[in-house]
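hiii, so i know i said id send this last week but things got crazy w the move. better late than never?? heres the sequnce for the chain we talked about at the cafe, plus the structure i predicted for it. fair warning i was half asleep when i ran it
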Amino acid sequence: MIKAPSVDGEGRQDNDEGSSRQNLRRSERQHEEDVNFFILQTSTRKLIFNDKECRILILKDLTSVFRFKKASQLGQNMKMLTTTVSHEMRLPLESVLTMCKILLSWTRDKRMIELVNSILSANKIILCRVGDLLDLSTLDKGSFIPNLKVFDLPQSIEEIVSINNQQALFKDIRVTVLQQGQIPNYIRTDHGRMQQILMNYMGNGIKFTSKGTIEVLVSLKRDRLMPNIALLKIEVRDSGCGISESDQKKLFTPFTMLSANKQLNPNGTGMGLSICKQIAERMGGSTWVNSYEDLGSTFGFSFKCEIPDNRQI
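okay and structure toks below
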């Protein structure tokens, strides 16, 4: 029990206020790791009853207030640590990326090119995870800002496919890209975050597919009233183990991992799909999943985008 300053009937504190607060803080530190502790603030009031002076002892439970403050402080510290570490990781990772590209421009040796491409693939996957951490922080603060730019859509998708292709070949999985309908070469949207979600989807598809195929389906639906505005849709369809209907409802919930996921990736956080969902919604789109056990899964997302004219390319 922690005893706070006692107060008499006139409202005057019996002990020195500063000293009592120090004692309170000291007691909090001593008990903060004890899950069974509680904090009480005590005070007394003078009362006249039947012409006799009495004193009433008043107890106020401050345990929940203290625990809430500690939890809030811990949460803020973790967010700050996550953001700082993510920023610190990004610079050396981008340096490795640049050096690998320089190496590729210098060498003609096939074995060396293969090794450097493996480093590039692993580096880009880590950069994508760092992006997840940074987005987790910005989404939580409500400071998410899209980075819109014009880029080559087929080339951008092919880049993510090639990064994951080595891992897919190792498991004897064939990866194909299918365009549904007429797709423009260039669009304007958040290029980095589009690749980030596609990387998450493809990584999950390869992880849960032991053998078979993965298809990346790309389509674009133009707005009837504003032809330069469109909705980009990308789906990743795998022939893996599939997901039960009850588990599908949990997929985009933060810190939720399915039983199969825990077996294949016990060190996962269950945050990837949740971040993908929040990013897609901030970009004017959505996420979805269609899956049947033992038949495979289809994960999709959509982004609003612009179709640039020739002057913007």
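btw The chain has three domains: 1-61, 76-141, 149-306. thought thatd interest u
miss u guys!!
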